[in-house]
Amino acid sequence: MITEYKVGRTSYFRVESTDENGKVTSRRDVRIRLRTSTSIDGQTHYLLYNDQMKVIPGTWEYLNEHVMGYADNTRKARAYSLRYLFSYMAIRCTSLQRFTISEVQGYIQLLKGISTADGSQQELKLRGNGTINMHLEVMRDFAQFMGYDNRCFTETSPARFFVTPSDGMQPENADTTRYAYALDEYRDDGLAPRYISEAEYRTIRKSFQDEGDLTGVLLVDLMYLYGLRIGEALGLTIEDVREEIANGEYIFCLLLRNRQHGKTWQSSKNLPHPENQIEYSRSSYRKATQTVVIDEDTYSQILQYIETVHAAAMKKPDIYSRSLADIVDRKSFERNENHYLFLNQWGSPLTGQAWNKRIRRHFTANGIDVDHGGRKTNLSHRLRHGFAMYQVQHGMKELTLAAMMRHRSPQSIMAYYNPTAQEERQLKEEFQDHLRREIFEKE
Fold first, then answer.
1. Which of 74, 93, 197, 273 is the 20 to 30 Å CA partner of 139?
2. How far is Cα 236 from Cα 254, in angstroms, rounded to an integer?
3. Are 304 and 217 in contact (CB under 8 A)?
4. 53: which residues sit within 8 A by CB, 6+ positions away?
5. What is the pLDDT of residues 342-367, one digit of tens each?
6. Model's pTM, two decimal places?
């Protein structure tokens, strides 16, 4: 019997053996501890300990060197994923070097929270296929990083298997391009949209406006009108709001970049995280900086926000100092101090958690669907999805949209096309009407 427990913020597994009468004959607890440290260069570092409180070999280098350039949330997710992987190995008394097809199958079953391959029962947290695939990807990547040449982790192994919801373990063709053991992920029926419509955007914006919440209005505008991620928006500083002249015309823009002392919720995805301020002057950092062009009205709106919200915060200098941010380009920035753009009601930087509570309240108050009993859909990201869907519905090409949304591959933006069941029905009806007209006109 394997049971997953949670004490405080720490999860651990209890492994018990019973006799034919159900009496427990042996019991042991498996605890792989994860600790964080921010004392080195202001960056978060992850430490993974085994039961003897010794750092697990390879995990420090993997988490704090190999994936250091990843977004903070990605590194955190990989740290938790390795904790589950090493917990499984401790339960089975094995190592990654000795993994077999059976071991990978057992790990999948552990993640799925169902009975293991050897028939032992489990009382575990249930996880979806998407989450399990993420854990399997981390397993493969860590094995490759450690140099383990094991056919279980390769993509083109001739003895590969994957788990389907109904058939269990089934052989897969050797020439397939799917990753080993990847589980099928299913899209929902589309009844609950993953994006905000134009009408809903106007409703949410007015809701913030009626409360006199200038922060909420501006954030909603940046995410829906320009496709900003919430981390990109919260990471903006006054220095990042630019007015430039090109070919005799004014161009207004926002610069997206990460700073040395930026928090997790102020992170721009896929951009470097500098470990010191010297990196600000390096060409690799400057070239990675992304520019989002905005219109003059939005630029004026931002300036008005600074004049109103920041001016009020300046009256409380002790609190306002908490919003101080590094100055990247001292040659072009005229002020002596730089501050994060978005502030809370007291004058400190607005956190992601505080914003999530605020926007959820406005969604609920206006009857806009939110997740209940779980939070599968990031409410802020639905505004970014709304930006993408609006562009798709108005005929924007994939390459252009990928560039506007700062995606590396045009294929990745296909995830943003999530029509509702009503929209799909309307598209089919319009196509059928068009087809009928074409047929009847030719008769």
1. 273
2. 8
3. no
4. 33
5. 999 999 999 998 999 999 899 888 88
6. 0.54
